[in-house]
Amino acid sequence: MGNAPADPVVDLDERWRERRIKWGRKLGRLRLGVEPLDAQLDRHRRVTSVMSAVSGAIGLLFIALFSAFGRPDVGLIFVAVFLLPIIVFSWAGYLLLARRAHAFEREYDAYQSERRRLIG
């Protein structure tokens, strides 16, 4: 006659599987379930720091080079146009990725607590 009521745990797990696929796409470089997200974010932060340091060092070299020829203003403009965006966008990308990772962890914790509530 009618459909039997679905098990709420099975329904919750099915919804979580769909959300996990979407989160996997949103998180891009981070791999879910392979290693803790904190470790992956830490590695990503270190790479971003090194990339910023290298770009900064190259920028200082350009400023020094143009200063040696009496035009530090050209060196500063060059650095501001070509190297500063690399640093800014790499940190913006890292911060966005970290924010998404923390949002995923909050949603995963909510799923786990709801699952525990339904089971027992």
TrEMBL record:
Keywords: Membrane, Transmembrane, Transmembrane helix. It comes from the Bacteria. The chain crosses the membrane at residues 50-69, 75-97. This is Uncharacterized protein.
